[in-house]
Amino acid sequence: DDSAMRFECHLWNRRASARGIQRITCTIAEGDVFSRVASESNMGAFLRNYQTNKQLAVECTSFGAYQVMGDTAMRVTGLGPEEFWEEFQRDPVALSDRMVIGWFGENPRAVTAARNRDWRELTRRYNGTGQVDYYAPRLENAYNRSA
Length: 147
Known about the structure:
Elements: E1 5-7, H1 9-19, H2 38-41, H3 43-52, H4 54-59, E2 61-63, E3 68-69, H5 70-77, H6 81-90, H7 92-106, H8 108-115, H9 119-127, H10 132-146
Antiparallel strand pairs: 1-2, 2-3
């Protein structure tokens, strides 16, 4: 879904503390590293926190079909938080493509992993170590369906 977004309240709290910004409610169950509570991670959560601090809200949200984090998305597109949010609302398809292309442009080891069809390494570089077992097989299956 090109218009998908997920606000990461745990990232907000980590970064807010470092910047002297008020922390927010973020329910993290034992064994998880992020909130699975919809009201803490959906568009409503993003919009509430966007009103508090636009920069931080965009930084702490993953956007688009490829769920690129907002801090990376702003860096690779050169857009500020307001411009980014306006562009995302206007054309999430084009912006999703720009974000993931920009992410790969900054991550040559991920490009190598993709070229080598090393799905575990690509997943680790894209999502971190926590969800390799979940996403690597999905990437491989998607690739095999398209080949």
